[in-house]
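To: structure desk
From: M.T.
Subject: fold request, one chain
Message: Could you run this one when you get a chance? Sequence is below, nothing fancy, just the single chain.
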Amino acid sequence: MKTVRIGSGAGYGGDRIEPALDLIRRGNLDYLIFECLAERTVSIAQKRRREDPAKGYNDLFDYRFTRILDTFADMHAAGDRVPRIITNMGAANPRAAAERCRAMAAERNLTGLIIACVTGDDKTDEVERYLGYTTIETGKPLSAIDGEVLSANGYIGCAGIVSALAQGADIVITGRVADPSLTLGPLVHEFGWAMDDYARLGRGTWVGHLLECAGQVTGGYFADPGYKDVPELWNLGFPLIEVDESGEGVVTKLPGTGGIVSVATVQEQTLYEIQDPANYFTPDVIADFSHVEIEQEGPDRVRIKGASGKAPNGFYKTSVGYHDCYIGTGEISYGGTNALPKAELAREVLEHRFELIGLAADEIRFDYIGVNSLFGDELSSSICAEYGLTPPLEVRLRVAVRTKTPEAAREVAREVEALYTNGPSGGGGATGSVRDIISIASILIPADDFTVNVDLLEA
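Reply: Done. Structure tokens follow.
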């Protein structure tokens, strides 16, 4: 039976590159995917594209493709086979990313390389058509959001990738494609699955879901010392899956790499970010993971089977990015046996100072890092009481303020710095920052409103 070997080269926008290069060299892969978009990532990229029409793709695109294409050049010279690359690093500007990739390939004399860009997810210029649509997060119309709309990108499916591969693309660069669709595309292409064969599409979506977060399924994020130990986490290998024509397969990793592939790591990743295992909505299929079977076949080899699916709901989730606010932060540390009371006094000073200067804030939050910043006051106090924990010898006070103007956000850092000489004794390490916050509102747009296009470039 024919099998396809697909590896994961990245699980988020800033992921490391070495495990991907290892997979290219030693994995005997047919395909390598790079999943590099989060919901806000495209909005940030749209903002950069506005500033420079030649930009708007992933910030690490050059960094990654320098190393990918250098590896390709070395392997071509040695007569070795290289995998086809599929990635959503195109973000808000897949065409510019493809052009950049072509130029980089030409610099390395990688002639004949076919690069495809898949577009059609971008609805930014049409967003006014959808202002009456209901926002998933709030139940209110999209028009009710308070802030400038920066982007609107739908999660399109695998059709564009399938078309690009059918036209001979060696590298496929997309924008906002649903994460598992990056893997489903090559499976549909290789096995000739029909787009209404929902059982197989559901299995292929599970394969894509296991690969989309890269090192998570090989032990990263899974690790919990003393409870779930993972060997050589510093040398974590990224996963690959051997998939057969039915859509079932084996999850594994390269020998000599750190991490672990086990029933538990696959179970955790299967449930990761799934709202309902029996109804996982994607643009290609509603996948059903409720009856999957996960079996340890050998060391770092786990067999997966039993996923299924049914017809998609006819809508594409669309992330609308908008400028929400500014967040101003300030931090300062106190040490010694009286550290916490000093930090509490510093907070009192700041609260009064914000009132005196008339700080225009929508929300103010204080944290005592090391005391209550993760669990809040009530739960943190309960934990300390239960385990007999004593107040810390060092505390870092953090204040964060949500405002509508950068000027108000900057006031926070100034007031925290003033604690050096106008607050409790012994304060040190004061820092401050202002962040421009982009938030997301999600709506459902009919799939028929999207037109997917594929353009080919040859190096």
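Reply (cont.): DSSP finds twelve helices and 18 strands in the chain. Let me know if you need anything else for the meeting.
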